[in-house]
Amino acid sequence: MPSRRTIARRGIDRGVVNTLTLSTGEHWWMPAGLAEVERRKRRKRRAQRERGSSRHAKARRRVAALQARAARIRQDWRHKASLDIARRFATVVLEDLATRNMTRSARGTVDAPWHGFGTVLAYKLEERGGYLCRVDPRHTSQTCSACGAVDRESRESQASFRCRQCGLRAQCCNQHPASEHGV
DSSP string covering the chain, please? Predict the structure, then answer.
C-alpha cells in the first residue's frame, strides 16, 4: 500500500490574516516573537536622534540589527513550514501570486514571508520526490471545487463560500479551489 505522502495532494492559500491555509483547513501563522521585534523596531525608529550625530548612527545600527533579526525569524519560519509540508504531501498546489506587487502597497503585509516560500517549498518537495504546481490565481476564490463553476456571487465573505450551482458549502478555505486543479 502506498504511503500517505505519495498519494496526498493539497492546496495552499496565502493571506494576510492567516499566513498560510492548507486545503485541509490547517492554518500557519508567523511566530509571535516577530511582532515583538517589529514593536521594538518602531520604538527605536522614533528614538532616532539628530542626523549626523553619533547617537543617530547608533540608533540606526540598532534598527538594522532588529531588521536582520526579523528577517532571520521569517526565513526560519519559511524553512520549517515548507519542510513540514514537503514531508507530509507529495503534490502541493500554490497560487502563482505576484506577492512583491501585492505587499508593496499593502500596509501591514510586509512581514508576510511569502516572497521566498514558493521557492523554498519547491526545492524541498523536489528533494523528497514531490511536485509543486503553480496555478493561475485568477478566479480561484470564485471557483467551486466540486463542479468547477465560476461565480463571483458564490463567495459570500472572505471565509465563506457557497456554490450557486451545486450548493457546496465551504468555510475558511477548507475546500480551497487551488487544490482541485489537475497536475
Answer: ---HHHH-EEEEEE-SSSSEEETTS-EE---HHHHHHHHHHHHHHHT--STTSHHHHHHHHHHHHHHHHHHHHHHHHHHHHHHHHHHH-SEEEEE---HHHHHHH-TT-TT-THHHHHHHHHHHHHHTT-EEEEE--TTTTTB-TTT--B-GGGB-SSSEEE-TTT--EEETTTT-GGGGS--
Distance CA(183)–CA(75), nearest Å, equals 28
Mean pLDDT, the chain, as a whole number?
A: 75
Phi/psi of residue 59, each to 5°?
A: -65, -40
What pTM, to 2 d.p., does this model score? 0.69
Between CA 80 and CA 177 the distance in angstroms is 25
Angle at which helices 54-88 and 114-127 cross, to 10°: 40
- pLDDT score, position 114: 66
